[in-house]
Amino acid sequence: MVRFEEDVSTPARLAGPGEGIGRDELSLATRNHGLPLEGLRYDVTPPGMHYVLVHYDIPYAEDDTWELTIGGRVDHPLRLSLNDIRSFKPVTTRVTMECAGNGRALLSPRPVSQPWLVEAVGTADWTGVPLRTLLNEAGVQDDAVDAVFTGADHGVERGVEQDYQRALPLDTALGDEPEVLVAYAMNGAPLPPQHGRPLRLVVPGWYGMAHVKWLRDITVTDEPFTGFQHTVAYRLRHDPDDEGVPVTRIAPRALMVPPGFPDFMSRTRIVRPGPVRLEGRAWSGQAPLATVDISTDDGATWDPATLETPADHRWAWRRWTFDWTATPGPHTLTARATDAEGRTQPLAQPWNRGGFANNLVQRLPVHCTD
């Protein structure tokens, strides 16, 4: 691969004191988008509202010529058309997907990258064939360690020209909890181009960087994968020279539908005095969701929200509600999720250089007026 100088592809950096969002970050923000928080009312996110992050360009794909190859440490290398993949028994799984950098723009100092606030999330019904079905068809050899997934999107990052690639350990790739999908449909329709048409990986419970879009190749290896997106990017580290810890499963998070109505520029919410139904969604990719607590006084006191009885969707968010009596004046509303293994959202966010796995509680300013 060709390496590029810094005038083409800059190294990772932190924003300086008082530095605002730059043109480079604004350019990323116009290409990518988050979920409008009022969209949390939908059990299943409409594709146009679901968050999107595209590292490079959206490849143009013709369904009738697309192929998925499976090779490496397998007994029977495969070359599969979309019709071949659709011939396997389909599986549909409802999955909440969240970007690993969600909340990055709220950190200080701010890692300079896609400037997410808290909206980089969505939930969809993904239909496809289980990854383990395809790998079993190919016959994974005994010395296999990783499955490496290559997308058709190609670009330069921190000076390194590359295809977008990620890997999963074989026990995850072949496992049934979660069951990884090679998906070709979203909410009952073919994948939209921005969501990976015609094929993408869906890894329930994992942050979005693992869900490789425009999937064209799976290579089974007998050594751990060391590609850029695996060992350089998407690591939790405090110093540039740290080896870091890989980003994997989604940390607990609760988000609130902004109540009332907004000011156009500031997005400050305005409500009338009296009963106000607060609602939102909460999820965790590490253990089932246990509780959601709500504060209407910026964390001074907390009360439990009512969680909807979980449906048969282990990897999807759950709706919560809370009845609040609004009184005149300013308020800061906060929601906090805790999972069944005791992981909860922090009130003060630990910092890392990439701005990853940032699940600081949402703080929503509201003004109650007559």
From TrEMBL:
Q: Which intervals of the chain are annotated as region Disordered?
A: 1-23
Q: Which cofactors must be present for this protein to function? A: Mo-molybdopterin
| This protein's record includes keyword Oxidoreductase | yes
The protein's GO terms of the molecular function aspect are: heme binding; molybdenum ion binding; molybdopterin cofactor binding; sulfite oxidase activity
One Pfam family of this chain: Oxidored_molyb
Task: Specify the domain of life of the species encoding this protein.
Answer: Bacteria
Domain Oxidoreductase molybdopterin-binding, by residue range, is 55-228
GO biological process per UniProt: sulfur compound metabolic process
| Oxidoreductase keyword on record | yes
Alphabetical UniProt keywords = Metal-binding, Molybdenum, Oxidoreductase
Query: What are the Moybdenum cofactor oxidoreductase dimerisation domain coordinates in residue numbering?
Result: 273-367
Q: Which PANTHER family match?
A: SULFITE OXIDASE, MITOCHONDRIAL, SULFITE REDUCTASE
Entry protein name: DMSO/TMAO reductase YedYZ molybdopterin-dependent catalytic subunit
